[in-house]
Amino acid sequence: MDEYTRRTRAWLDEIYSGPPPGFGSYVPHSPIHGLSLRSQYLGTYVHLYAVLRHLSKYEFSSVLDLGAGEGFLARMIEDLFRARCVAVDLSVQACRRARERIGNVVSAEALHLPFRNKAVDVAVSVNTLEHVRPIQEAVEELQRTARNLIVVALPHARSGTPREAPVTPHAHVSMLTRAEMQLLFGPRARIYPSLSRLLRPFYAIIAEDDVREQPRYQWLKRLPWNILYAAARMLGRYVPRATLLRWLCRAEYAVAQLFPWWTYESIVVVELEGARHRRPHVPSRVLLDALLRPHLPRGS
Questions:
Q1: Residues near 23 by Cβ (< 8 Å), separated by ≥ 6?
Q2: What's the pLDDT tens digit per position in 159-191?
Q3: Which residue in 59, 142, 146, 252 has a CA-CA distance of 20 to 30 Å to 214?
Q4: Which domains does the chain have, with CATH numbers?
Q5: Residue 74: closest CA among 53, 93, 48
Q6: Tens digit of each residue's pLDDT (9 = 90 or more) over 47-92
Q7: pTM for this one?
Q8: Residue 213, φ and ψ in degrees, nearest 5
């Protein structure tokens, strides 16, 4: 393990060990304590819905989730697809929290996964590989451990965007353009755009917290946007925000495909030799029910 990875593990362990400054209790990275409509989690729901849509097209019985954090996605995959899932994360503290939700948890580095060749049907990684250096070796590890399918979600860079130097822990040291992703994952890979910039204003409307103090929503304090924002938030009195979030998940998935040049995340799907398509696909309604249900306690 190199120095950058050691510093990243220490930084993550601190994040997962207790509350950030100014908070009285631990603030989870994902909404593991139940359905939350706070702004910090809306993007998580929308992005994971897209990942689940792609997974729902395939048959599988075992999954490796690399960069699993507290096990939110891993537990959901187990429940939705009745698949055995192993959650893998660099952080020891994240793994400790993940064991509250899923039984099979391993702390390991992405470049050295402690699994035999073709150990699982599917290897999944969401918003992790952009923090791994060198990313090529991490992809090779996913290809080594997966029999049927690889699904990777990560932000994509614009052409000419400089990579972050490994000075601070958990930096975006491996940001790639979509063209570079295609070269990295090979000709079998299909690159799907995800998370559209066009729908960002709707996050502010759906969020139960007032987002106007956040840097990216400062414009909502100015006329006429402040009036429109106040009027739009009144929708929450007539249409439940959870219902609006369901609409947003579906809309984001469709708009990202229609306007790929206005997206900032990608989902890479690589079908390997053993890939088998599921007939019929799991309906989107079922995916949303699992994603947005109130609780994910272990053993429920």
A1: none
A2: 777 778 888 999 999 999 999 999 999 999 999
A3: 252
A4: 3-195+264-291 (3.40.50.150)
A5: 48
A6: 999 999 999 999 999 999 999 999 999 999 999 999 999 999 999 9
A7: 0.92
A8: -85, -10
